[in-house]
Amino acid sequence: MIDKASIQDFPPMTASLLADNSGVFRVGTAEQYLTATDAGTARRQLVELMQAEARKSGRPIRVTVDDPTSVTVLLIGVDGELQEEPQSAAPARTAQRTTPPPAPVSAQRVPLIQAPPPTPSQSAPARPAPAQPQTPPRAAPAQPSTPAPVPAQPTPPVSANPQATTTPQPVPPQRPSVQQPAFGTPPFQPVSSQPNAQQPVPAQRAVPAQQSVQAPPAAPAQQQHPVPQQQQVPGQPAAPARRDLRDAPSFLAPPTIGPAQHGLAGLLNKLGFSVPPSASERAERDDVHAVSRHFPRRRTISVANQKGGANKTPTVVNLSSVFARYGGGGVAAWDNNETMGTLGWRTEQGGHDSTVLDLLAAAGDLLSPGAERADLSRFVHHQPGDKYEVLRSAADGEHVVTADEVDLVHRVLAKYYRLIVMDSGNSAGAPNWRRMVELTDQLVIPTTTVEDKKEGARLTLTAVSRVSERGAELARNAVVIVSEAEAKDTSIANAYAEDFRPYVRDVVVVPFDPALKNGVIRHDALRSSTQRAWLAAAAAVSRGL
Protein backbone atom coordinates (compact mmCIF):
# COMPACT_ATOMS: atom_id res chain seq x y z
CA MET A 1 0.00 0.00 0.00
CA ILE A 2 1.37 3.40 -0.97
CA ASP A 3 1.66 5.94 1.87
CA LYS A 4 -0.15 9.01 0.54
CA ALA A 5 1.11 11.16 3.42
CA SER A 6 4.66 10.97 2.08
CA ILE A 7 3.66 12.25 -1.37
CA GLN A 8 4.64 15.83 -2.16
CA ASP A 9 2.68 17.83 -4.71
CA PHE A 10 5.71 19.82 -5.81
CA PRO A 11 6.98 19.69 -8.41
CA PRO A 12 3.69 18.77 -10.14
CA MET A 13 3.86 15.69 -12.33
CA THR A 14 1.64 15.10 -15.35
CA ALA A 15 1.64 12.87 -18.40
CA SER A 16 -0.18 12.91 -21.74
CA LEU A 17 -0.77 10.08 -24.22
CA LEU A 18 -1.86 11.11 -27.72
CA ALA A 19 -3.87 9.27 -30.35
CA ASP A 20 -0.75 8.76 -32.51
CA ASN A 21 0.80 6.63 -29.70
CA SER A 22 3.22 9.37 -28.65
CA GLY A 23 3.33 11.06 -25.28
CA VAL A 24 5.17 13.23 -22.76
CA PHE A 25 5.97 12.88 -19.03
CA ARG A 26 6.39 16.20 -17.21
CA VAL A 27 8.14 16.77 -13.84
CA GLY A 28 7.74 20.44 -13.16
CA THR A 29 9.13 22.13 -16.27
CA ALA A 30 11.21 19.12 -17.35
CA GLU A 31 9.68 16.94 -20.10
CA GLN A 32 10.48 13.43 -21.32
CA TYR A 33 8.97 12.38 -24.65
CA LEU A 34 8.03 8.90 -25.79
CA THR A 35 6.94 7.33 -29.07
CA ALA A 36 5.53 3.89 -29.79
CA THR A 37 3.94 1.88 -32.57
CA ASP A 38 0.77 1.10 -30.60
CA ALA A 39 -1.10 2.27 -27.53
CA GLY A 40 -0.02 -0.68 -25.37
CA THR A 41 3.69 0.02 -25.93
CA ALA A 42 3.15 3.71 -25.19
CA ARG A 43 1.45 2.84 -21.89
CA ARG A 44 4.28 0.52 -20.93
CA GLN A 45 6.93 3.17 -21.69
CA LEU A 46 5.05 5.73 -19.63
CA VAL A 47 4.79 3.36 -16.66
CA GLU A 48 8.55 2.75 -16.83
CA LEU A 49 9.26 6.51 -16.83
CA MET A 50 7.00 7.07 -13.81
CA GLN A 51 8.53 4.17 -11.89
CA ALA A 52 12.03 5.48 -12.62
CA GLU A 53 11.04 8.94 -11.31
CA ALA A 54 9.66 7.41 -8.09
CA ARG A 55 12.88 5.51 -7.53
CA LYS A 56 14.93 8.63 -8.26
CA SER A 57 12.96 10.80 -5.82
CA GLY A 58 13.02 8.15 -3.10
CA ARG A 59 9.36 8.69 -2.25
CA PRO A 60 5.97 7.93 -3.80
CA ILE A 61 4.78 10.28 -6.52
CA ARG A 62 1.41 11.37 -7.87
CA VAL A 63 0.97 11.71 -11.65
CA THR A 64 -2.10 12.94 -13.49
CA VAL A 65 -2.35 11.02 -16.78
CA ASP A 66 -4.62 12.13 -19.61
CA ASP A 67 -5.24 10.28 -22.86
CA PRO A 68 -7.80 10.67 -25.68
CA THR A 69 -10.44 8.83 -23.62
CA SER A 70 -9.96 9.65 -19.92
CA VAL A 71 -8.01 11.36 -17.15
CA THR A 72 -6.51 9.18 -14.40
CA VAL A 73 -4.54 10.01 -11.25
CA LEU A 74 -1.90 7.38 -10.52
CA LEU A 75 0.20 6.85 -7.39
CA ILE A 76 3.58 5.21 -7.99
CA GLY A 77 5.56 3.75 -5.12
CA VAL A 78 9.34 3.60 -4.81
CA ASP A 79 9.13 -0.16 -5.37
CA GLY A 80 7.24 0.39 -8.66
CA GLU A 81 3.76 -0.32 -7.27
CA LEU A 82 0.93 1.31 -9.25
CA GLN A 83 -2.27 2.47 -7.63
CA GLU A 84 -5.15 4.53 -9.06
CA GLU A 85 -6.25 7.35 -6.78
CA PRO A 86 -10.04 7.91 -6.68
CA GLN A 87 -10.91 11.44 -7.68
CA SER A 88 -13.33 11.95 -4.82
CA ALA A 89 -12.59 15.66 -4.63
CA ALA A 90 -13.84 16.22 -8.13
CA PRO A 91 -17.56 16.39 -7.23
CA ALA A 92 -16.88 18.97 -4.52
CA ARG A 93 -14.94 21.13 -6.94
CA THR A 94 -17.69 20.95 -9.51
CA ALA A 95 -20.23 21.87 -6.86
CA GLN A 96 -18.15 24.93 -5.98
CA ARG A 97 -18.02 25.90 -9.60
CA THR A 98 -21.73 25.59 -10.05
CA THR A 99 -22.72 27.70 -7.00
CA PRO A 100 -21.51 31.15 -8.21
CA PRO A 101 -23.69 31.38 -11.35
CA PRO A 102 -26.99 31.86 -9.47
CA ALA A 103 -25.60 35.01 -7.80
CA PRO A 104 -25.38 37.01 -11.04
CA VAL A 105 -28.92 35.97 -11.94
CA SER A 106 -30.35 37.23 -8.67
CA ALA A 107 -28.16 40.31 -8.88
CA GLN A 108 -29.72 41.11 -12.19
CA ARG A 109 -33.23 40.80 -10.82
CA VAL A 110 -32.71 43.28 -7.95
CA PRO A 111 -32.44 46.34 -10.22
CA LEU A 112 -35.52 45.18 -12.12
CA ILE A 113 -37.56 45.25 -8.91
CA GLN A 114 -36.02 48.35 -7.36
CA ALA A 115 -35.98 50.39 -10.54
CA PRO A 116 -39.72 51.01 -10.77
CA PRO A 117 -40.23 53.54 -7.96
CA PRO A 118 -41.15 55.92 -10.79
CA THR A 119 -44.05 53.63 -11.70
CA PRO A 120 -46.36 54.85 -8.92
CA SER A 121 -46.50 58.03 -10.90
CA GLN A 122 -48.09 56.04 -13.64
CA SER A 123 -51.21 56.06 -11.52
CA ALA A 124 -51.08 59.86 -11.18
CA PRO A 125 -52.89 60.51 -14.44
CA ALA A 126 -55.67 58.20 -13.32
CA ARG A 127 -56.03 59.77 -9.89
CA PRO A 128 -57.78 63.00 -10.88
CA ALA A 129 -60.93 60.94 -11.45
CA PRO A 130 -61.00 59.07 -8.14
CA ALA A 131 -59.58 62.03 -6.18
CA GLN A 132 -62.92 63.85 -5.97
CA PRO A 133 -64.91 63.14 -2.79
CA GLN A 134 -62.38 60.82 -1.23
CA THR A 135 -59.79 63.44 -0.31
CA PRO A 136 -62.04 65.02 2.40
CA PRO A 137 -62.57 61.66 4.11
CA ARG A 138 -58.84 61.31 4.13
CA ALA A 139 -58.56 64.47 6.17
CA ALA A 140 -61.03 63.11 8.71
CA PRO A 141 -59.10 59.88 9.44
CA ALA A 142 -55.97 61.88 9.93
CA GLN A 143 -56.54 61.77 13.67
CA PRO A 144 -54.19 62.74 16.45
CA SER A 145 -50.77 61.50 15.55
CA THR A 146 -50.39 62.95 12.08
CA PRO A 147 -51.43 66.58 11.82
CA ALA A 148 -48.60 67.16 9.34
CA PRO A 149 -49.82 64.55 6.88
CA VAL A 150 -53.28 66.17 6.87
CA PRO A 151 -52.13 69.23 4.91
CA ALA A 152 -50.04 66.89 2.82
CA GLN A 153 -53.10 64.83 1.99
CA PRO A 154 -53.77 66.61 -1.24
CA THR A 155 -50.52 65.04 -2.47
CA PRO A 156 -51.22 61.34 -1.69
CA PRO A 157 -53.20 61.02 -4.88
CA VAL A 158 -50.12 62.19 -6.67
CA SER A 159 -47.65 59.94 -4.87
CA ALA A 160 -48.48 56.78 -3.11
CA ASN A 161 -44.79 56.80 -2.27
CA PRO A 162 -44.16 59.77 -0.03
CA GLN A 163 -40.57 60.02 -1.15
CA ALA A 164 -41.76 60.82 -4.64
CA THR A 165 -43.56 64.01 -3.48
CA THR A 166 -40.33 65.95 -3.63
CA THR A 167 -39.84 65.17 -7.32
CA PRO A 168 -43.21 65.05 -9.02
CA GLN A 169 -42.00 66.81 -12.18
CA PRO A 170 -39.03 64.54 -13.10
CA VAL A 171 -41.21 61.46 -12.84
CA PRO A 172 -43.30 61.93 -16.00
CA PRO A 173 -40.27 62.06 -18.34
CA GLN A 174 -39.09 58.71 -16.93
CA ARG A 175 -42.43 57.01 -17.41
CA PRO A 176 -42.01 55.99 -21.06
CA SER A 177 -38.80 54.03 -20.41
CA VAL A 178 -40.26 52.22 -17.38
CA GLN A 179 -43.55 51.38 -19.04
CA GLN A 180 -41.90 49.42 -21.85
CA PRO A 181 -41.87 46.08 -20.00
CA ALA A 182 -45.56 45.37 -19.45
CA PHE A 183 -44.70 42.75 -16.90
CA GLY A 184 -43.07 45.33 -14.63
CA THR A 185 -46.13 46.85 -13.02
CA PRO A 186 -47.34 43.98 -10.85
CA PRO A 187 -44.09 43.45 -8.94
CA PHE A 188 -43.65 47.14 -8.39
CA GLN A 189 -46.89 47.63 -6.44
CA PRO A 190 -45.75 45.60 -3.41
CA VAL A 191 -42.48 47.50 -3.36
CA SER A 192 -44.25 50.87 -3.40
CA SER A 193 -46.68 49.74 -0.73
CA GLN A 194 -43.90 48.95 1.74
CA PRO A 195 -42.74 52.56 2.13
CA ASN A 196 -46.39 53.60 2.51
CA ALA A 197 -46.76 51.12 5.34
CA GLN A 198 -44.22 53.14 7.29
CA GLN A 199 -46.19 56.36 6.72
CA PRO A 200 -49.43 57.41 8.44
CA VAL A 201 -51.69 54.40 8.62
CA PRO A 202 -54.97 56.24 8.03
CA ALA A 203 -53.70 57.71 4.80
CA GLN A 204 -52.65 54.29 3.61
CA ARG A 205 -56.01 52.77 4.37
CA ALA A 206 -57.59 55.35 2.16
CA VAL A 207 -55.05 54.81 -0.63
CA PRO A 208 -55.91 51.13 -1.07
CA ALA A 209 -59.46 52.24 -1.60
CA GLN A 210 -58.21 54.23 -4.56
CA GLN A 211 -55.97 51.41 -5.67
CA SER A 212 -58.94 49.09 -5.54
CA VAL A 213 -60.41 51.17 -8.29
CA GLN A 214 -57.28 50.58 -10.32
CA ALA A 215 -57.06 46.95 -9.25
CA PRO A 216 -59.05 45.54 -12.19
CA PRO A 217 -56.30 46.34 -14.72
CA ALA A 218 -53.57 45.34 -12.26
CA ALA A 219 -55.12 42.11 -11.03
CA PRO A 220 -55.09 40.34 -14.39
CA ALA A 221 -51.43 41.22 -14.73
CA GLN A 222 -50.74 39.56 -11.37
CA GLN A 223 -52.60 36.44 -12.45
CA GLN A 224 -50.13 36.03 -15.33
CA HIS A 225 -47.34 35.02 -12.91
CA PRO A 226 -44.97 37.91 -13.54
CA VAL A 227 -41.98 36.26 -11.85
CA PRO A 228 -41.78 33.39 -14.33
CA GLN A 229 -42.06 35.97 -17.10
CA GLN A 230 -39.02 37.76 -15.70
CA GLN A 231 -37.15 34.47 -15.66
CA GLN A 232 -38.08 33.79 -19.25
CA VAL A 233 -36.97 37.17 -20.58
CA PRO A 234 -33.29 36.72 -19.66
CA GLY A 235 -33.42 33.27 -21.25
CA GLN A 236 -34.76 34.47 -24.58
CA PRO A 237 -31.45 35.84 -25.96
CA ALA A 238 -29.94 32.34 -25.61
CA ALA A 239 -32.46 31.02 -28.17
CA PRO A 240 -33.39 33.98 -30.37
CA ALA A 241 -35.08 31.84 -33.02
CA ARG A 242 -36.88 28.51 -33.00
CA ARG A 243 -35.91 25.69 -35.32
CA ASP A 244 -37.84 23.01 -37.10
CA LEU A 245 -38.00 19.84 -35.00
CA ARG A 246 -37.48 17.80 -38.14
CA ASP A 247 -33.94 19.24 -38.27
CA ALA A 248 -33.18 18.43 -34.63
CA PRO A 249 -30.33 15.93 -34.18
CA SER A 250 -30.68 12.91 -31.95
CA PHE A 251 -30.11 13.58 -28.26
CA LEU A 252 -28.78 10.06 -27.73
CA ALA A 253 -25.07 9.74 -27.18
CA PRO A 254 -23.16 8.20 -30.10
CA PRO A 255 -21.96 4.64 -29.60
CA THR A 256 -18.64 4.42 -27.85
CA ILE A 257 -15.71 2.17 -28.63
CA GLY A 258 -15.11 -0.24 -25.79
CA PRO A 259 -11.63 -0.71 -24.33
CA ALA A 260 -9.18 -3.19 -25.78
CA GLN A 261 -9.80 -6.82 -24.89
CA HIS A 262 -6.90 -8.60 -26.62
CA GLY A 263 -3.13 -8.49 -26.39
CA LEU A 264 -1.07 -6.34 -24.04
CA ALA A 265 -3.63 -3.52 -24.21
CA GLY A 266 -6.32 -5.89 -22.98
CA LEU A 267 -4.03 -6.98 -20.12
CA LEU A 268 -3.41 -3.38 -19.10
CA ASN A 269 -7.16 -2.75 -19.05
CA LYS A 270 -7.62 -5.67 -16.68
CA LEU A 271 -5.12 -3.93 -14.38
CA GLY A 272 -7.25 -0.80 -14.30
CA PHE A 273 -6.00 1.18 -17.30
CA SER A 274 -8.19 2.44 -20.11
CA VAL A 275 -6.40 1.53 -23.33
CA PRO A 276 -8.42 1.83 -26.56
CA PRO A 277 -8.40 -1.11 -28.97
CA SER A 278 -5.68 -1.32 -31.59
CA ALA A 279 -6.35 -0.92 -35.29
CA SER A 280 -6.33 -4.69 -35.79
CA GLU A 281 -8.82 -5.23 -32.97
CA ARG A 282 -11.11 -2.52 -34.34
CA ALA A 283 -10.94 -4.19 -37.76
CA GLU A 284 -11.93 -7.50 -36.20
CA ARG A 285 -14.90 -5.85 -34.47
CA ASP A 286 -15.99 -4.38 -37.79
CA ASP A 287 -15.84 -7.83 -39.41
CA VAL A 288 -17.88 -9.38 -36.59
CA HIS A 289 -20.50 -6.66 -37.04
CA ALA A 290 -20.62 -7.32 -40.79
CA VAL A 291 -21.21 -11.07 -40.51
CA SER A 292 -23.77 -10.62 -37.70
CA ARG A 293 -26.17 -8.60 -39.83
CA HIS A 294 -29.60 -9.86 -40.82
CA PHE A 295 -30.85 -8.76 -44.22
CA PRO A 296 -34.38 -7.63 -45.14
CA ARG A 297 -34.82 -10.64 -47.41
CA ARG A 298 -33.20 -13.98 -48.17
CA ARG A 299 -29.66 -13.81 -49.59
CA THR A 300 -27.90 -16.46 -51.75
CA ILE A 301 -24.12 -16.92 -51.92
CA SER A 302 -22.70 -19.13 -54.68
CA VAL A 303 -19.23 -20.70 -54.49
CA ALA A 304 -17.90 -21.68 -57.94
CA ASN A 305 -14.73 -22.82 -59.67
CA GLN A 306 -14.77 -25.03 -62.77
CA LYS A 307 -11.63 -26.83 -61.62
CA GLY A 308 -12.05 -29.65 -59.12
CA GLY A 309 -10.04 -29.54 -55.89
CA ALA A 310 -10.08 -25.75 -55.81
CA ASN A 311 -11.30 -25.66 -52.17
CA LYS A 312 -14.97 -25.03 -53.00
CA THR A 313 -16.41 -27.32 -50.31
CA PRO A 314 -14.15 -26.08 -47.45
CA THR A 315 -15.09 -22.54 -48.49
CA VAL A 316 -18.83 -23.36 -48.28
CA VAL A 317 -18.36 -25.01 -44.87
CA ASN A 318 -16.36 -22.18 -43.31
CA LEU A 319 -18.50 -19.36 -44.68
CA SER A 320 -21.63 -21.13 -43.42
CA SER A 321 -20.01 -21.64 -40.00
CA VAL A 322 -19.01 -18.00 -39.59
CA PHE A 323 -22.37 -16.60 -40.70
CA ALA A 324 -24.31 -19.04 -38.51
CA ARG A 325 -22.11 -18.59 -35.42
CA TYR A 326 -22.19 -14.79 -35.42
CA GLY A 327 -25.61 -14.30 -36.99
CA GLY A 328 -27.53 -16.78 -34.86
CA GLY A 329 -28.25 -19.65 -37.26
CA GLY A 330 -30.66 -19.54 -40.18
CA VAL A 331 -28.00 -20.68 -42.67
CA ALA A 332 -28.30 -23.57 -45.15
CA ALA A 333 -25.33 -25.05 -47.04
CA TRP A 334 -26.61 -26.65 -50.25
CA ASP A 335 -24.56 -29.01 -52.41
CA ASN A 336 -25.76 -28.01 -55.90
CA ASN A 337 -23.54 -30.46 -57.71
CA GLU A 338 -25.32 -31.72 -60.80
CA THR A 339 -24.53 -35.34 -59.88
CA MET A 340 -22.62 -36.20 -56.69
CA GLY A 341 -20.79 -33.64 -54.55
CA THR A 342 -18.55 -33.92 -51.47
CA LEU A 343 -20.24 -31.52 -49.07
CA GLY A 344 -21.87 -34.43 -47.26
CA TRP A 345 -18.46 -36.07 -46.77
CA ARG A 346 -16.90 -32.98 -45.13
CA THR A 347 -19.79 -32.29 -42.71
CA GLU A 348 -21.58 -34.19 -39.96
CA GLN A 349 -24.52 -36.44 -40.77
CA GLY A 350 -27.85 -36.03 -38.98
CA GLY A 351 -30.11 -38.84 -37.80
CA HIS A 352 -31.05 -39.76 -41.37
CA ASP A 353 -29.47 -40.09 -44.83
CA SER A 354 -31.77 -37.79 -46.82
CA THR A 355 -30.53 -35.89 -49.88
CA VAL A 356 -31.84 -33.24 -52.22
CA LEU A 357 -33.90 -35.89 -54.03
CA ASP A 358 -35.90 -36.56 -50.85
CA LEU A 359 -36.53 -32.87 -50.39
CA LEU A 360 -37.72 -32.56 -53.99
CA ALA A 361 -40.26 -35.32 -53.39
CA ALA A 362 -41.66 -33.47 -50.36
CA ALA A 363 -41.36 -29.93 -51.77
CA GLY A 364 -45.12 -29.53 -52.19
CA ASP A 365 -45.78 -30.32 -48.54
CA LEU A 366 -42.90 -28.12 -47.34
CA LEU A 367 -44.21 -25.16 -49.31
CA SER A 368 -47.79 -25.53 -48.05
CA PRO A 369 -49.11 -22.94 -45.59
CA GLY A 370 -49.38 -25.52 -42.82
CA ALA A 371 -45.75 -26.66 -43.06
CA GLU A 372 -43.49 -25.96 -40.07
CA ARG A 373 -39.77 -25.48 -39.62
CA ALA A 374 -39.45 -28.83 -37.86
CA ASP A 375 -40.77 -30.61 -40.95
CA LEU A 376 -37.58 -29.69 -42.79
CA SER A 377 -35.40 -31.46 -40.22
CA ARG A 378 -36.03 -34.78 -41.98
CA PHE A 379 -34.15 -33.56 -45.07
CA VAL A 380 -31.25 -31.42 -43.83
CA HIS A 381 -28.31 -32.37 -41.61
CA HIS A 382 -27.76 -30.11 -38.61
CA GLN A 383 -24.20 -29.18 -37.60
CA PRO A 384 -24.43 -28.91 -33.80
CA GLY A 385 -21.12 -27.11 -33.27
CA ASP A 386 -21.35 -24.62 -36.12
CA LYS A 387 -25.15 -24.02 -36.06
CA TYR A 388 -26.01 -24.43 -39.76
CA GLU A 389 -27.76 -27.14 -41.84
CA VAL A 390 -26.51 -29.11 -44.85
CA LEU A 391 -28.59 -30.24 -47.83
CA ARG A 392 -26.64 -33.06 -49.46
CA SER A 393 -26.52 -33.92 -53.17
CA ALA A 394 -27.70 -37.27 -54.50
CA ALA A 395 -25.59 -40.12 -53.18
CA ASP A 396 -25.65 -42.36 -56.26
CA GLY A 397 -24.71 -39.71 -58.82
CA GLU A 398 -27.26 -41.05 -61.33
CA HIS A 399 -29.78 -38.21 -61.13
CA VAL A 400 -28.85 -35.02 -62.96
CA VAL A 401 -30.44 -31.99 -61.30
CA THR A 402 -32.34 -29.74 -63.71
CA ALA A 403 -32.86 -25.97 -63.68
CA ASP A 404 -36.49 -26.35 -62.63
CA GLU A 405 -35.46 -28.53 -59.71
CA VAL A 406 -32.95 -25.90 -58.65
CA ASP A 407 -35.77 -23.34 -58.62
CA LEU A 408 -38.00 -25.62 -56.54
CA VAL A 409 -35.31 -26.44 -53.96
CA HIS A 410 -34.37 -22.77 -53.73
CA ARG A 411 -37.99 -21.84 -53.01
CA VAL A 412 -38.12 -24.35 -50.17
CA LEU A 413 -34.86 -23.21 -48.58
CA ALA A 414 -35.75 -19.53 -49.02
CA LYS A 415 -38.88 -20.13 -46.96
CA TYR A 416 -36.98 -21.47 -43.97
CA TYR A 417 -33.51 -19.82 -44.10
CA ARG A 418 -32.24 -16.24 -44.23
CA LEU A 419 -28.98 -17.21 -45.95
CA ILE A 420 -28.27 -19.94 -48.54
CA VAL A 421 -24.68 -20.91 -49.40
CA MET A 422 -24.51 -22.99 -52.59
CA ASP A 423 -21.72 -25.39 -53.47
CA SER A 424 -21.40 -26.18 -57.18
CA GLY A 425 -20.07 -28.67 -59.70
CA ASN A 426 -17.38 -28.18 -62.31
CA SER A 427 -19.46 -27.73 -65.47
CA ALA A 428 -20.34 -24.15 -66.37
CA GLY A 429 -22.66 -25.46 -69.08
CA ALA A 430 -24.84 -27.57 -66.78
CA PRO A 431 -28.43 -26.26 -66.41
CA ASN A 432 -28.28 -26.30 -62.61
CA TRP A 433 -24.98 -24.34 -62.68
CA ARG A 434 -26.39 -21.62 -64.93
CA ARG A 435 -29.60 -21.37 -62.87
CA MET A 436 -27.46 -21.01 -59.74
CA VAL A 437 -25.86 -17.92 -61.28
CA GLU A 438 -29.30 -16.39 -61.88
CA LEU A 439 -30.25 -16.93 -58.21
CA THR A 440 -26.98 -15.55 -56.83
CA ASP A 441 -26.65 -12.36 -54.79
CA GLN A 442 -22.90 -12.69 -54.12
CA LEU A 443 -20.39 -14.75 -56.09
CA VAL A 444 -17.38 -16.30 -54.33
CA ILE A 445 -14.46 -17.75 -56.33
CA PRO A 446 -12.14 -19.99 -54.30
CA THR A 447 -8.70 -21.13 -55.42
CA THR A 448 -5.54 -22.58 -53.93
CA THR A 449 -1.87 -21.82 -54.49
CA VAL A 450 -1.78 -24.38 -57.31
CA GLU A 451 -1.50 -22.89 -60.77
CA ASP A 452 -4.31 -24.80 -62.50
CA LYS A 453 -6.74 -23.92 -59.69
CA LYS A 454 -5.88 -20.27 -60.20
CA GLU A 455 -6.51 -20.59 -63.93
CA GLY A 456 -9.80 -22.35 -63.22
CA ALA A 457 -10.83 -19.39 -61.06
CA ARG A 458 -10.07 -16.97 -63.90
CA LEU A 459 -12.05 -19.04 -66.40
CA THR A 460 -14.98 -19.28 -63.98
CA LEU A 461 -15.13 -15.50 -63.64
CA THR A 462 -15.14 -15.23 -67.41
CA ALA A 463 -17.88 -17.87 -67.78
CA VAL A 464 -20.11 -16.15 -65.22
CA SER A 465 -19.67 -12.78 -66.89
CA ARG A 466 -20.90 -14.28 -70.19
CA VAL A 467 -24.09 -15.81 -68.80
CA SER A 468 -25.98 -12.50 -68.76
CA GLU A 469 -25.66 -8.87 -67.75
CA ARG A 470 -26.38 -9.96 -64.21
CA GLY A 471 -23.56 -12.49 -64.48
CA ALA A 472 -21.18 -9.75 -65.63
CA GLU A 473 -22.12 -7.67 -62.58
CA LEU A 474 -21.62 -10.68 -60.28
CA ALA A 475 -18.14 -11.26 -61.73
CA ARG A 476 -17.12 -7.62 -61.18
CA ASN A 477 -18.32 -7.73 -57.56
CA ALA A 478 -16.98 -11.21 -56.81
CA VAL A 479 -14.84 -12.10 -53.78
CA VAL A 480 -11.82 -14.32 -54.47
CA ILE A 481 -10.54 -16.47 -51.58
CA VAL A 482 -7.00 -17.78 -51.99
CA SER A 483 -6.22 -20.71 -49.64
CA GLU A 484 -2.65 -21.81 -49.07
CA ALA A 485 -2.22 -25.41 -50.22
CA GLU A 486 0.95 -25.88 -48.15
CA ALA A 487 2.40 -24.29 -45.04
CA LYS A 488 5.04 -22.29 -46.90
CA ASP A 489 2.84 -20.89 -49.65
CA THR A 490 2.26 -17.48 -48.10
CA SER A 491 4.23 -15.55 -50.71
CA ILE A 492 2.52 -17.43 -53.54
CA ALA A 493 -0.91 -16.78 -52.04
CA ASN A 494 -0.19 -13.05 -51.71
CA ALA A 495 1.04 -12.92 -55.31
CA TYR A 496 -2.11 -14.68 -56.55
CA ALA A 497 -4.23 -12.23 -54.56
CA GLU A 498 -2.57 -9.26 -56.25
CA ASP A 499 -3.17 -10.86 -59.66
CA PHE A 500 -6.93 -11.08 -59.02
CA ARG A 501 -7.37 -7.78 -57.18
CA PRO A 502 -7.82 -5.50 -60.25
CA TYR A 503 -10.70 -7.61 -61.58
CA VAL A 504 -12.92 -8.25 -58.52
CA ARG A 505 -14.31 -6.41 -55.52
CA ASP A 506 -12.17 -8.05 -52.83
CA VAL A 507 -9.54 -10.77 -52.32
CA VAL A 508 -8.81 -12.59 -49.04
CA VAL A 509 -5.91 -14.95 -48.27
CA VAL A 510 -6.49 -17.90 -45.91
CA PRO A 511 -3.39 -19.52 -44.34
CA PHE A 512 -2.66 -23.21 -44.50
CA ASP A 513 -4.36 -25.29 -41.81
CA PRO A 514 -4.00 -29.08 -41.48
CA ALA A 515 -7.56 -29.29 -40.11
CA LEU A 516 -8.84 -28.46 -43.60
CA LYS A 517 -6.97 -31.20 -45.42
CA ASN A 518 -9.18 -34.22 -44.74
CA GLY A 519 -12.26 -35.38 -42.86
CA VAL A 520 -15.14 -33.47 -41.29
CA ILE A 521 -14.46 -29.74 -41.00
CA ARG A 522 -15.23 -28.14 -37.66
CA HIS A 523 -14.58 -24.43 -37.25
CA ASP A 524 -13.38 -24.81 -33.65
CA ALA A 525 -10.63 -27.17 -34.81
CA LEU A 526 -8.99 -24.47 -36.94
CA ARG A 527 -6.07 -22.39 -35.78
CA SER A 528 -6.87 -18.92 -34.45
CA SER A 529 -5.16 -17.29 -37.45
CA THR A 530 -7.24 -19.42 -39.82
CA GLN A 531 -10.46 -18.56 -37.99
CA ARG A 532 -9.57 -14.87 -38.20
CA ALA A 533 -8.95 -15.18 -41.94
CA TRP A 534 -12.32 -16.87 -42.53
CA LEU A 535 -14.00 -14.13 -40.47
CA ALA A 536 -12.42 -11.55 -42.80
CA ALA A 537 -13.54 -13.56 -45.84
CA ALA A 538 -17.13 -13.81 -44.59
CA ALA A 539 -17.13 -10.07 -43.80
CA ALA A 540 -15.97 -9.30 -47.34
CA VAL A 541 -18.82 -11.43 -48.67
CA SER A 542 -21.36 -9.81 -46.33
CA ARG A 543 -20.42 -6.31 -47.48
CA GLY A 544 -21.53 -7.27 -50.97
CA LEU A 545 -24.97 -8.41 -49.84
SSE map:
Blueprint: E1 13-17, E2 22-27, E3 30-35, H1 39-57, E4 61-66, E5 71-76, E6 82-84, H2 89-98, H3 102-114, H4 135-139, H5 171-179, H6 185-197, H7 201-223, H8 226-235, H9 263-270, H10 279-291, E7 299-303, H11 312-327, E8 331-336, H12 356-361, H13 363-366, E9 381-383, E10 388-391, H14 403-416, E11 419-424, H15 431-439, E12 442-448, H16 451-467, H17 469-476, E13 479-483, H18 490-500, E14 506-510, H19 528-542
Parallel strand pairs: 1-4, 7-11, 7-12, 8-10, 8-11, 12-13, 13-14
Antiparallel strand pairs: 1-2, 2-3, 4-5, 5-6, 9-10
Helix pairs in contact: 1-9, 6-7, 10-19, 11-19, 14-15, 16-17
General description of the model:
This protein is an alpha/beta fold and 545 residues long. It has 19 helices and 14 strands. It has an eight-stranded mixed sheet, sandwiched between helices. Helix 1 (39-57) crosses helix 9 (263-270), helix 11 (312-327) crosses helix 19 and helix 14 (403-416) runs parallel beside helix 15. It is elongated and about 90 Å long. It starts with 12 loop residues before the first strand and ends with a helix. 34% of the residues are buried. Residues 89-216 and 218-230 have low confidence and may be disordered.
Tag the structure with descriptive keywords.
19 helices; 13% strand; 41% helix; 545 residues; alpha/beta; 8-stranded mixed beta sheet
Quick rundown:
The protein is α/β, with parallel strands linked by helices and 545 residues long. It contains 19 helices and 14 strands.
